[in-house]
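User: Structure tokens for this complex, please. No commentary.
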Amino acid sequence: VATSRQVEVEGRELKLTNLDKVLYPEAGFSKGEVVDYYAKVAPAMVPHLSGRAVTLRRFPEGVDDLDSAFFEKRCPKHRPKWVKTTSVVAGPRSGKIDFCVCDGLPTLIWMAQLAAIELHPSLSLGRAPTRPTVLAFDLDPGPPADVVDCCRVAIRLRDMFGHFGVQSFAKTSGSKGLQVYVPLNSKKVSYDETKPFAKAIAQLLEKQTPDRVVSKMKKVEREGKVFVDWSQNHRSKTTIAVYSLRARERPTASTPVIWEEVEAVADSGDGSTLVFEAGAVLERVERHGDLFAPVLELQQDLPEL
Amino acid sequence: MARAIWSGSISFGLLNVPVKLYSAVARRNIALREIRESDSARIKHRLFAEGTEEEVPRDKIIKAFELTEGNYVPLGKAEIAALAPAKSRSIEVEDFVDLGEIDPIYFDSPYYLGPAAGAEKAYSLLAAAMQASGKVAIARFVFRNKEHLAAIRPNDGVLTLTTMRFADEVVAAAELEDVLPSEKPKVAKNEQQMAEQLIESLSTKFDPDSYRDEYREQLMGLIERKAEGKEIVAAVSEAPQATKAPDLMAALEASIAAAKGKKTAKKPAAAKKAKAPPKKSKATKAKKAPSRAKAKSSK
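Assistant:
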């Protein structure tokens, strides 16, 4: 097997190296397979990344070697000329940083070639960095709570927004939790509104069932509860991209799911049906298309209180 | 708009840039009141002369230096004030140095310098020139009745001023020779290499946002929980405190309750596709009911 080769992707020249290097030792999943996954999932995934600042989480020595793993906000200097960037403030006290923007298959493959297993995009577009296109909730279970508990909280979130006639969509985090996205795609909204709103929702969930939900970050209070992380609704925060692989033992990905699947898990108490590895994700995309497409299209306003 | 806490001008050579000083620190300490446990009466402190119970009014209190025990050199307010450094409106730049040469141990409190009205251009010019030269200005100025040493440096077109400690205010490491290492003990090369590797593996970009005042968060959390749990002790003697503005969560809760009221007649027309057996809609409803009951009972 040739371990390094020059390829042309949509007219862009790329050098792929170390393709037989195993990045997921437990699953024997190689860098070549990572590149192959991203190449195949690109048609569904790229629209969700396009125009956004992306933070790369790179695992040059594989998912087991956390010492060599790193988050990369600044787009690498050695990038090919055709990789686009966007200049966005990375934090309240830091200046603007040129982040990578993934606007097509070649860039996605280039990122996979960098062993950027996890892609964490901004909730807003680079050209309008203060305007999130979605409201996002990251439901993170504190053991012994698990994804089943997350499903139950997600359904309550869906129903809360449902009361206001606002639709929401769920995806697995690809790790232990579940995420609920409320599409906005509205010119009127800013983080100044979405963040307090998300916080209020999280606080209300906690107030209703303080034994099952926490809205505060503190790890000690999270045991056996679902942490409703509202704080990602911030201009310098990022959330794992839909269809991004995660650096877990197995090559699982953040996968869009339909509410019926979430309800089924909440009812059965069996969360194993919400774990999707690369191959399963590709099959789902083939069969159902991009279940997360409405998140990019649906225009909704935050409910008026 | 932020309020200036001092105004004057930066001067060096023939240059004179009128500026205003703004605090760069938001004090986030949580203020706690003292109350009597039994009835929540506010505690007041009285000043009285030792040996008697006689209260002493503020204007009859002066300061004194205790020479030997019980022997005081009294110092009146006017006398102390007369010694205060002459009021000056000038930040006198004495030197320009490299930032890396200043040991952070000298830094005290950070401030922002903003341009005074009309001085915007001179200000930007100075900031740009300092940025280009990569130097930090060391200056003296009088602020709050004390002469301060300060470092002025540009940051993205904004000048910051950090007051500095004078050299004689900083304790030399040598003065703590009994507790700090004075001579280097022999270190095995591989041991040091291991330590260096560990440092390397933990090395990251400095992100001030990732460090939080956890004590403050915990204390605030405790206050919030106690407040939510209605464990608030109301003052008996005093008029009730102004209630907090209704928060977003309460508005949300009321709004959802109202929406639920409207919709109780018709079921949410959620699409139950073939995948979902009929029992599921029942289960969802059953789950909603107790959560509503809970929300009510906790009020």
